[in-house]
Amino acid sequence: MIRVLDSFTADKIAAGEVIERPVSAVKELVENSIDAGAAQIIVELRGGGKSYIRITDDGCGIAADEAETAFLRHATSKISSISDLDEISSLGFRGEALASIAAVSRLTMVSRTEDAAAGVKLVLHGGQVISCERAGANRGTTIIVEDLFYNTPARRKFMKSDAREASAVIELIQQYAICYAGVKFMMINNGQTVFTTRGDGDVLGAAGILYPDMHAQRLIPLESGIVRGYVSDPGTTRSNRKGQLFFVNGRLVNSAVIEKGLVEGYSGRIFSGHPLAILFIEQDPRDIDVNIHPGKREIRFLRQDEVCSSIADAVSTAVMSGRGIPDAFAVRTEPASGSAGPERAAAEAPAESGQTSIRDYLKDLERTPREPLSQPHAAYDISSVKEDMPSFESQAPAPFDFSELSFRGYVFDTYIIMQGADSLYIFDQHAAHERIFYEKFMEGYNNSSHIPQPVLTPFTINVSADVYLSGRQDLDGLRRIGFEVEDFGDRTFMVRGVPEYMTLEEAEGFARGWLEGADGSRSANDAVRDKLIMRSCKSAVKANDSLSELEINDLMRRLAGCANPFSCPHGRPTFIKVTSYDIERSFKRK
Ligand code: ADP
Ligand code: MG
Q1: Are 135 and 119 in contact (CB under 8 A)?
Q2: Residues whose CB falls within 8 Å of the CB of residue 94, separated by 6 or more in sequence, listed in order
Q3: Residue nearest to atom 1 of ligand 1 (CA)
Q4: For position 461, which CATH number holds?
Q5: Domain around 235
Q6: Could you give the CA distance from residue 250 to residue 279 in angstroms, rounded to a whole number?
Q7: Which of 4, 35, 142 gets mutated to test ligand 1 (max ligand atoms within 8 A of its CB)?
Q8: Could you tell me if 319 and 220 lie in one domain?
Q9: Are 206 and 187 in contact (CB under 8 A)?
Q10: How far does the centroid of ligand 1 lie from the alpha carbon of residue 96, in Å?
Q11: What is the β-pairing status of strands 277-281 and 244-248?
């Protein structure tokens, strides 16, 4: 039942629905279709949505006698009182969108409910009802919005080019199509089908169609507690955050809290850029506030620390599994070629790198209107993606098992080759060693009592005058780590005790490095961490230092014991994998 909210409740919904561009109208209309339980949604644009927007769904429809009510401000079937505002499970709730859109356009709605013999057709211009009559219609609702902002020239001026406005809509529909993978979306722009999704509920399948550069098949599944979804291995990143989609209770949101959890989950394993992520977060509706932003794009979490740490945990479990090992072929692999239907070709041809290329594609369209789509790349073969694609229900992957590896060789005095069940792994001896030292130092630092172990023969460290001057200021830092050290005068420091977790040799190198880099401007913890990273780098075996098989075994054993064996403290990988599948494919066996 659609009813007008009382003014008290209406006023509480302070954020207000604001239609400022075609994409904001499309967003509201598509959300209405989803709320109506649609299995199929068609979005059609002309002129970037400025001249024409059509949204057709097969949802529950609107009863003829409620059609006009739906367009009244604060008319909604989704909540009825202020307490419902605390438990919103639908995307809409303000009862303002239809009224707002109708007020600034010429709008036609055709709708029929399941049990009605006939449908209803309602026409409004600038919010005024022009006609309301019986009409034949399929079950569901079609809303056509023409000449957006025809009566508000000020707002019309702020719209961007047709291509830019269309691009924003396409980006939005791509995101909804992933979130609502069970809904079949069709996106049509200026008479051309831009993409169609299958609507079979397969999130990765949808992601693969819509973002071919997302390497959907290589994303790592995660599922724990309030969060499920997919993340990339730490080596697969983008320079911006466009590869990160966050959905909270089915609502697409921007969220610093989620971002933070994601980054923490990688715990320093990202060398540069932003990882890819599709995260679905479930929260008790009472624990979030979705009514703080006109576009409902921002939300507030009541338990934000909990949300952040659950995400971090889930992400960390996923990337610490074997699936997080960078794939040597991942970067260079050309998508497998295969025939694609015209729809898929339309969806994929423009996209070498997701949205940017759709933008380029739209720019091209602008220049040479309505030319058939060119196909610069081999079509992306979704079947190859499906093959090793984990289903959404799959468990979090098992942790990587070093004991399954067997030694197969050592090349360039730097790389160790190990074989696993269906992949071979190439270890970088320097990076691996760095990781081992770093964890050893860190653990020592964290666990030790920081009480120095006296050394039998105290040793001195002689430094240059400048180092002596700055080093003197920083002796307390060394003492906190577990050194017993004093200023011996004449550019010399005397060390009488060293941390229990360092050998004498390591300790001497560490103390020297510390003194040489003394810099009081940073926090002690950061400084320790940096120093430990530097020391682990210096202590680690270099590339081209030939190791014996015994040393290699020892290195592997110690790496396997690390908390994070997958990357060095700088974030570079300690090992990469080459799957037998990729090898076979390279030899054209597959
Ligand atoms: P809200 O979504 O906040 O309730 P809207 O102005 O967007 O407000 O829509 C008003 C009402 O019209 C909705 O509550 C719903 O009952 C009905 N409605 C809108 N669009 C559709 C649709 N596509 N299918 C079925 N009902 C719809
Ligand atoms: Mg709505």
Answers
A1: yes
A2: 13, 15, 16, 17, 74, 76, 291
A3: 95
A4: 3.30.1540.20
A5: 212-338
A6: 10
A7: 35
A8: yes
A9: no
A10: 9
A11: parallel
Whether residues 590 and 452 fall in one domain: yes
Instruction: Note whether residue 393 is domain-resident.
Output: no
pLDDT tens digits, residue range 488-536? 988 899 999 998 877 888 788 778 877 876 554 444 555 667 767 777 8
For residues 329 and 241, state if they share a domain.
yes
In a domain, 394, yes or no: no
* Ligand 1 atom closest to 141 (CA): 23
* Whole-number pLDDT of residue 365: 37
d(CA 70, CA 98): 7
- pLDDT value at position 467? 80
Predicted local distance difference test score (pLDDT) of residue 334? 36
DSSP three-state, residue 272? coil
pLDDT in tens, 130-174: 999 999 999 999 999 999 999 888 888 888 899 989 989 998 999
Pairing relation of β-strands 192-196 and 52-57? unpaired
Which residue's CA lies nearest to atom 14 of ligand 1? 76
Same structural domain, 217 and 125? no
248 CA to centre of ligand 1 in angstroms: 21
| Residue 406 and residue 511 share a domain | yes
Classify residue 396: in a domain, yes or no.
Answer: no
Measuring from each residue's beta carbon to the nearest atom of ligand 1, which residues come in under 6 Å?
Answer: 2, 28, 32-33, 36, 57, 59-62, 70, 75-78, 92-99, 141
